[in-house]
TrEMBL record:
Taxonomic superkingdom: Bacteria
Occurrences of domain Nucleoside transporter/FeoB GTPase Gate (ranges): 44-140, 218-312
TM segment ranges: 47-71, 78-101, 121-142, 149-169, 214-234, 246-265, 285-311, 323-343, 369-393
Pfam families: Gate
High-level lineage: Bacteria, Bacillati, Bacillota, Bacilli, Bacillales
The keyword Cell wall biogenesis/degradation is annotated on this UniProt entry: no
UniProt-recorded name of the protein: Sporulation integral membrane protein YlbJ
Coiled-coil portions: none
Record key words, sorted: Membrane, Transmembrane, Transmembrane helix
Keyword S-adenosyl-L-methionine: no
Length: 397
């Protein structure tokens, strides 16, 4: 009882303090809110909405059940999760955070994952998308597309290794399952049963997919704006400097430049701002790549809050996901050091044809998409919210 009262006092005090800070720095809060809203409306909403809607439809029409049967022989030995984890892993990498958490929670609600399997799965499927790594960070901040290849490969390789490590989380529960063989007939049978079980008109399925997707994106937008404001307030009251001094001591022990402490601390709260500040520092590109890889791996408290909000609708615990983020930061920092020479330094010096082809296949589309979202992203967001409003009014009617 006393513990709960202390929690009540602590929560109330923090909220009152936040309210006082917002009142004290209205101009700063307004600019931070605008910056967060701009990121959400121009990039996050238009880039995630198609993936969210398609994922909802794939689940509704039973395609995820089909994928689950086909991927079972791969996902179970590698990550100790069912085959449907292959769908979450692929969609999570393609669309970015917090898609992995969103799709994992959705499959848990469909009882296609156990609690432990969902906790394993969410720990390595919540990754940054190529559009952000290559378009925003590498080209937008560093003006270096070759760096984008290094950061992307580092990020996804280290995330894969996190998944391998997390397969041993509650490892004894593996005895309950029997590994299945590849069977298209069985996969189609699962798809057919899932589609019949849905038993909804096509219009209702489409409307629910759009509505659920936009609801999730509105929550994500709120968190982006909130943490943009929190980060700026921490700077104004010099709490950021205090936290950065603690990070500076750790960086010194690791023989890393202490001037990276403030950008790293900012990145721990909000990835975009932190990565931008890292690109503005006067230090070697390898050090910048290490710090950015750590920021991307940690996901930032902003993304972690989004994940916690999504997981709160299920019985999936947040602690394994947070532990995986710490593990990811360690593996990513080591991986980028190992890959820096072969994937960046040597390639820049020699301009290998294979890497040039990879650049044209991956980097250039990401760059074009990033620039396109800057021009038409807001219109996509506006149209999406308009459709959501119509669906909401129609449901109430």
């Amino acid at each position: 009882m006393l513990k709960q009262k202390l929690y009540s006092i602590m929560y109330a005090s923090l909220i009152v303090l936040l309210a006082v800070m917002i009142i004290s720095f209205p101009q700063v809060v307004l600019k931070a809110s605008q910056r967060g809203l701009e990121v959400w409306s121009n990039v996050v909403f238009p880039s995630l909405l198609p993936f969210f809607i398609v994922a909802e439809l794939l689940i509704a029409f039973g395609v995820v059940h089909f994928i689950g049967v086909l991927f079972e022989p791969v996902m179970r030995p590698l990550f100790n999760v069912p085959g449907v984890g292959g769908f979450v892993w692929t969609m999570g990498m393609a669309s970015g955070y917090p898609s992995g958490a969103k799709f994992t929670a959705r499959l848990r609600q469909e009882n296609q994952l156990s609690q432990t399997e969902a906790e394993r799965l969410v720990s390595f499927t919540n990754a940054s998308n190529p559009l952000f790594i290559i378009g925003a960070v590498s080209i937008g901040f560093f003006h270096n597309q070759q760096l984008g290849i290094l950061l992307a490969i580092t990020h996804y390789t280290s995330n894969f290794l996190v998944g391998i490590c997390m397969r041993f989380y509650k490892y004894n529960e593996r005895e309950k399952f029997k590994l299945q063989h590849l069977s298209f007939r069985k996969a189609f049978a699962h798809l057919h049963r899932a589609r019949l079980k849905e038993n909804k008109p096509l219009g209702k399925i489409l409307g629910d997919a759009v509505q659920h997707s936009i609801q999730t994106l509105l929550i994500i937008g709120g968190f982006i704006i909130l943490f943009s404001v929190l980060t700026e307030i921490l700077r104004q009251v010099h709490v950021a400097d205090i936290l950065a001094s603690g990070l500076a001591y750790i960086l010194q022990l690791l023989h890393l430049p202490v001037e990276m402490a403030l950008p790293l601390m900012t990145g721990f709260f909000e990835i975009t701002i932190g990565a931008n500040e890292v690109s503005a520092t006067d230090t070697s590109l390898l050090i910048q790549a290490i710090i950015v890889s750590i920021i991307l791996a940690f996901n930032g408290f902003s993304v972690q809050a989004q994940v916690a909000s999504i997981l709160a609708e299920t019985d999936i615990r947040f602690a394994p996901y947070f532990f995986a983020r710490l593990l990811h930061t360690v593996i990513a920092s080591i991986t980028v050091i190992i890959l820096y020479v072969p994937l960046y330094k040597n390639q820049v010096a020699s301009q290998e044809p294979a890497m040039t082809a990879f650049s044209q296949f991956v980097v250039q589309p990401a760059e074009k998409a990033y620039l396109a979202f800057g021009h038409i992203g807001f219109m996509i967001t506006f149209c999406g919210l308009f459709v959501y409003l119509i669906l909401l009014l129609n449901n109430k009617r």
